[in-house]
Specification:
- The chain has 559 residues and is of the alpha+beta class.
- It has a 5-stranded mixed β-sheet, sandwiched between helices.
- A hairpin with a 5-residue loop joins strand 15 and strand 16.
- Helix 8 packs across helix 9.
- 31% of the residues are buried.
Amino acid sequence: MTPARDLWTIASTADAARARAVLARLTADAGLPALDRARFLTAFTARLRRCLGEGGAEVAVRADADGQLHVAVRQPGRPGAWRHALSCPRPVTSPLPSPAGLDGAALAEALLDADADADAVLESLAETEELVGFHREELHQTNQGVLALHAELEAAALAQHELLDAERAARAAAENARRLLTFLANASAALNASLEHDDILRRLPDLLVPEYASDVDIWLADEERTPSGDRAALTAARTGRPQHAARHPGELPGVEDQPPSPLSPDRPLLCIPLGARTVQGVLTLTAPGERFDPDATVMLLELGRRAGIALDNARQYEQHRDVAEALQRAQLTELPEVPGVSLAARYLPATRGLNIGGDWYDAFRQPDGSVLAVIGDVTGHGLRAAVIMGQLRTALRAYAVEGNGPGRILTLLHRMLRHQQPELYATCAVARFTPGDPTVVWAAAGHPPAITRDPDGRVRVLDLKPGIMLGVPLAYEYAEHTVRLPPGSTLALYTDGLVERRAAGIDAGIERLGRALEALSAAELEDLDATAESLLKPMLHDSEHDDDVCLLLCRTSTA
């Protein structure tokens, strides 16, 4: 037999009354004794009243085949629930009735039934009072009996008070532990949300002051100054064990005691080493009051360990980022001086995240005297992308030395990447300038379109459909295109980091770049380096970008 289940939403006093009436009828039909029924309904009503005062409740009711009735009351969005299980002499009615189906007459009947239950309880109380009277009369007849019973009752009352005190203390301890664990979880999430070393150090005092410390000092192992806290902090840094400095021993769990620090003679100091594998620094806390709480100390020690892990992750991230950026910059080309073509380029690493590596530009002469301008972007980031970028750059130059044109060069690069790096892709655009020839031959592999500006200010986007990305597992021959550039024209090659933003598509960025190129004055166009800076300012005005940025400008001579 499938257990009967139901879930009731209690949003008002009327809902609570209907729920109580339904449970009263269920338990009565199931043969639950009146006294047990009254106790349960009283506790249930009190719980609903408390929940209604805090926004409402949900009541879950489940009836088992063996006569067990389970009732749970919880507040949505809050942990924990009030639960009660009743053993009924008879099976519980199935399916369970819904409180929503009770009308006024049913509620009135439930009220009369409640009075009947109250009469039964009062009758039981009357019997109890009669029995107590009998005992009082009996005890009155002998003084010794009264004294003995009095002593027993007093001892029972004392034991009850002790049990109540122990229960209150246990509840307070549990609540304190819950509060500390919640703080530890939230603080750990805040520290691990950033990979910026300085940002983590700034967050620690904000988290700890004023509840867990009146003052916070953080000393790192690579600093020249000595840690505050003198002997205690130095000992923590040297041994990797937490230290407590105060006039009296703190006897804190997992902490060694030291004499008071001259820097804080009146308040205790707690010096916690930062780091999981090695000590990276010391977190020195000044007590928020006269002493450190032992339970809070255990939490602070764990927070120090987690803060050390966050700092270690941030340091490794910064080192990886710096190495990737250094490798990336080391492989970028110094632009050659070429008669008939002026060149200018910019590379800007990503300002957020580990998104460095993979974007590159290049420009060089071919054996026939023509000049190749190249822009490219390897998928992925970090050291691997920077290394693959270097390999592509080297291979491209090798294919160009053989006299291949832009389309053939991309075809050969595509084949190489498919065989050597089958899971890695790249985009690339190649433009060839030939001295004395006003046409430019270009080819693209999945790369954003080049933009040209004629001397009269007209801007064009070379938006012919580009070929597929390099490395896609498909045989492909890249087509070449030609565009006529009057003398004094400017060709802009760029990577998607310049035009693509999360809040807008790449097409909007390309359009914005075209407007910026069109808006350049004649004076700005005279100096191609100034032109590059003038283009970057409106495109990167927010100074934050998630990807590398490469820009390569080529201007044909007017002579």
